[in-house]
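WP5 quarterly update. Target: Acetoin dehydrogenase dihydrolipoyllysine-residue acetyltransferase subunit. Source organism: Saccharopolyspora thermophila. Length: 377 aa.
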Amino acid sequence: MGALSMADERIRHVTMPKWGLSMTSGTITEWLVAEGDPVTPGTELAEIDTEKIAGTLESEEQGVLRGIVVPAGSAAPVGGTIAVIAPAEVPDAEIDAAVAQAREQLESGAVETAAGPVVAEAEVGGRTLSYATLGDGADVVVLVHGFGGDKNSWLFVQEPLADGRTVHALDLPGHGASSKDVGDGSLRTLAGAVTGFLDALGIERAHLVGHSLGGAVITAAAAAAPDRVRSLTLVAPAGFGPEVNAGYLRGFVEASTRRELRPHLRQLFADESQVTRQLVDDLLKFKRIDGVQEALKTLLGTLLAGDEQAIDARPLLAEVSAPTAVVWGRRDQVIPVAAPEVFGDDVAFRVVEDAGHMVHMENPAATRQAIESVLGG
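Structure tokens (predicted):
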């Protein structure tokens, strides 16, 4: 969001976000606010559908939604203005002019495309790690996905977090565009990849955020190198109790067709409609890459001991003094919500209603708030 050119500086434009590296446009399925409604940072503005996933666009501004440029049911390119926000005292004539200018730009195709994350690679321990970066602030945040995920799972969180910060979304070994060699697949090896990534980029200290397996990984990294970590945010983390949906984990690894994979993916979300055909197809394509099945099977041995979790990250967290937050979806069907006391008295613990295991995709605002609650560390 930013100021429209040649208009009152108080008029701010809401643009189609770039959620993920491949997104070029989005369709507004529903406006959640109407013209004339007041908005503040975090207000949910619209539901947007992309080829891969649907998400909710939140306001970054305070004011009044004065004009909708793109109606529900219509699409707009990434970077295109879809609405304008301004204080109530800005004259209607100026709002009308700003809306007309935005529509003209959309119709002519003269839309400045949002740059999106910059993808690069780092060599760590003989492996190539892929990562995507947004922002250039002094504070550094590193986002670490879960088992079977990749850097794109942070698509709704990375962009708003990058305001005034540098935010890297990392592909762990065996995932995304990183090397598929996971070695022994141990928690220590994966944690070493994270600290090695900090070394490769010359990052002295970083805020670490980890989802599921990634939560256990960053806890181990923080315990091994406490001087490198400014804060931890654990998103539905593995390693803090014995219970786990072992059937999901084994089913995800073994599935080789769309029909087999889709039921397992539905267990990741409270809202099963998030599991689009494109999401299923993308994961199947990933699972068919040479080395992926072997990597996933190796990591499955790290995650499971029979039908329970093999990882116990609790003693590792006890060694961490950095500010720590935990956020979890109440309807998590993969790792049940752990008891708050497991994490200690000094840990900020939040449970999000109507969200599942992928709480950072279903409720990115709550996830971002949890992360930002410890960024002063």
